[in-house]
Design a protein that fits this description.
The complex is a heterodimer.
Chain A (H helix, E strand, L loop, with lengths): L4 H5 L9 E10 L2 E11 L4 E5 L6 H8 L7 E6 L4 H6 L3 E4 L11 H11 L7 H7 L15 H13 L5 E5 L7 H16 L3 E6 L2 H7 L2 E6 L2 E6 L1 H7 L3 E6 L5 H5 L4 E7 L2 E6 L2 H10 L8 E4 L2 H13 L5
Parallel strand pairs in A: 3-7, 3-8, 5-6, 6-7
Antiparallel strand pairs in A: 1-2, 1-4, 8-9, 10-12, 10-13, 11-12
Chain B lengths: L1 H12 L2 H17 L5 H32 L2 H6 L5 H29 L7 H14 L1 H13 L2 H18 L11 H7 L3 H13 L6 H26 L3
Helix pairs in contact in B: 1-5, 2-3, 2-5, 3-5, 3-7, 3-8, 3-10, 5-6, 5-7, 6-10, 7-8, 7-11, 10-11
The chains are: A alpha/beta, B mainly alpha.
């Protein structure tokens, strides 16, 4: 809790990153949940923190929100200590766990939370609309289904009109349609210049909804960049066609090709530049019947990245 | 903070079952207690009203543990609301709640049991009953912030029943063995009852029980502050 005079003095947040995490470390007993996480989020960015369960995503988010301090390292939101940014109404948050408190209605709860943010909060009906719960305004929060509760918690994160919204696994327990609506609401919110940081282990959610993806595994950031870049880092795209009498060495020498595999009678090339690879294939007159070009999906990228880090490589 | 206090009071007002249950026992006890001397009448009034007030301030505290397990405290912590305001509002909730048993028992006392108190004595009794419960409301908050939900219930009940019995709210201390009687004098509930009775009988506030009440108020305020800060790390 001891804040340095310097960080106290940096009361202004002009130009400061929305989130700045420096070498965060947090252990629970002998479990090292977070081991040196470091990243920054610029105002207006939408960033996905992606990782498997137990990677340290939630711990990082909790520290970002000032719920507990890191053992080492520092966090600032808009140049302020997290608790201070929360008190200043800069942050709206949605955490995973917890039911909602009984004996209040959805409208009362959203209205109450909005009220704590003062005049910056948008009108409550607007927030209810955004979170697709306008029809639930009069319902008691303890009488809602899991998915409805999840949308109420999402509404609570948006209710204050905060410039930074942090969502921890926001679509857990939601059906496909609710998920789609939630992401749309989130993108609308981000489009107004707000900053959004969300965690997920749904890979396509990160890909579809974030400007940038930070991959966390075993308490460390193992990749950080636009989705495209992360896929490329993990081997890019695949080019596949029927296996005939192509020379594997010749295939391996094609531009962009990293790997040549033969699977179930098909040649599968992993390439960093599928356009150049296909052009070269055609140029060399190699047979390529039933040609398929596919992006290595984030799932593959993810597996490649996490297994690389598990091997303890410095890269 | 007023908005938060309003929200919590609204939640309480909707908990009719809890409110009824918290009033039934003190009212029943009060109705069963026989008539007697002037002293007995005041003792019974103060004993049961104080018992009822103690019950609601303790359960108000233990319900905090439940709120924590539901993530409510954490949700509040993620709003711009000041954490201190949250604690103070919960304490005020306890004080508002305490009005119910005190008022109900006093109405029964005045109009059914005809407790012979003058207007000034009534005012003094009611104020003493109400203000005197404050340290125990702080104890309730401490239990709620220190314990997990189920543990809080157990500890709350122990506090409620244990302190009432040992504090001589119903049975005078005369029937206790000597060492227990000596110990009881330092029980905050004994101090509460003694203080209220003396004030209700028109006397000056007795020095020992005034001191005991003030000391426990300071101690439980410190405990509540510690408990609140400690729970912050886990809520």
């Amino acid at each position: 809790m001891t804040k340095s005079a310097v960080s106290e003095a940096v009361a202004t947040d002009a130009g400061a990153p929305a989130v700045s995490c420096e070498d965060l470390v947090k252990s629970f007993g002998r479990v090292e949940a977070v081991r040196g996480v470091r990243f920054a989020v610029r105002p207006g960015e939408t960033v996905a923190v992606l990782g498997p369960n137990g990677a340290g995503k939630s711990t990082t988010v909790h520290m970002m929100l000032g719920l507990f301090p890191p053992d080492a390292g520092s966090i600032e939101l808009f140049g302020m200590a997290p608790e201070k940014a929360v008190r200043a109404g800069r942050v709206g948050a949605m955490l995973q766990e917890g039911q909602l408190v009984p004996r209040v209605t959805v409208g009362e709860l959203v209205g109450f939370v909005a009220g704590t943010y003062g005049s910056q909060a948008p009108a409550v009906p607007h927030t209810l609309e955004l979170a697709q719960i306008a029809d639930l305004a009069g319902r008691r929060v303890d009488k809602l289904s899991g998915g409805q509760m999840q949308r109420v918690r999402f509404a609570l994160a948006l209710a204050g009109g905060a410039r930074l919204v942090v969502l921890d696994e926001p679509t857990a327990a939601l059906d496909v349609e609710s998920r789609r609506q939630l992401w749309k609401a989130m993108r609308d919110y981000a489009a107004k210049g707000n900053t959004v940081v969300f965690t997920t282990h749904y890979l396509e959610e990160a890909d579809d909804n974030a400007d940038r993806i930070i991959v966390i595994a075993k308490g460390q950031v193992i990749a950080d960049g636009p989705a495209e870049e992360i896929k490329k880092a993990a081997g890019g795209r695949t080019v596949a066609f029927r296996h005939e009498d192509q020379d594997p060495d010749e295939l391996a020498a094609l531009p962009g090709v990293n790997e040549v595999k033969v699977l179930h009678g098909r040649v599968v090339l992993t390439t960093t530049d599928s356009d150049a690879t296909v052009a070269a294939l055609a140029g060399a007159g190699l047979p390529m019947r039933d040609l398929e070009v596919a992006g290595a999906d984030l799932e593959d990228a993810f597996v490649a990245l996490t297994s690389a880090s598990a091997e303890g490589g410095a890269g | 903070m007023p908005a938060y206090l309003r929200l919590e009071l609204r939640r309480l007002a909707r908990d009719g079952g809890y409110l009824m249950a918290s009033l039934v026992v003190p009212v029943a006890i009060y109705l069963f207690l026989g008539q007697g001397s002037h002293g007995d009448l005041v003792q019974n009034l103060v004993g049961t009203a104080g018992f009822g007030a103690l019950g609601v301030v303790v359960t108000n505290g233990t319900s905090i543990a439940e709120d924590r397990s539901r993530g409510w405290l954490r949700l509040l912590r993620l709003t711009p609301l000041s954490p201190l305001d949250v604690v103070v509002a919960r304490g005020l909730c306890a004080m508002v709640l305490a009005v119910l048993p005190i008022a109900l028992i006093s109405l029964l006392g005045a109009f059914y049991k005809h407790v012979p108190l003058g207007a000034g004595e009534w005012v003094a009794t009611l104020l003493a009953l109400w203000f005197g419960i404050a340290p125990l409301a702080l104890l309730g908050l401490s239990v709620g912030y220190l314990c997990e939900a189920r543990m809080a219930q157990v500890v709350g009940t122990l506090v409620y029943v244990g302190l009432s019995l040992l504090g001589g709210l119903f049975v005078g201390l005369d029937s206790f063995p000597g060492w227990l009687r000596a110990l009881a004098k330092f029980n905050p509930v004994y101090g509460y009852g003694e203080f209220t009775r003396k004030v209700g009988e028109g006397g000056a506030p007795p020095a020992l029980s005034t001191f005991v009440l003030l000391a426990w108020t300071a101690a439980f305020a410190a405990l509540a502050a510690f408990a609140y800060r400690r729970s912050g790390r886990y809520s």
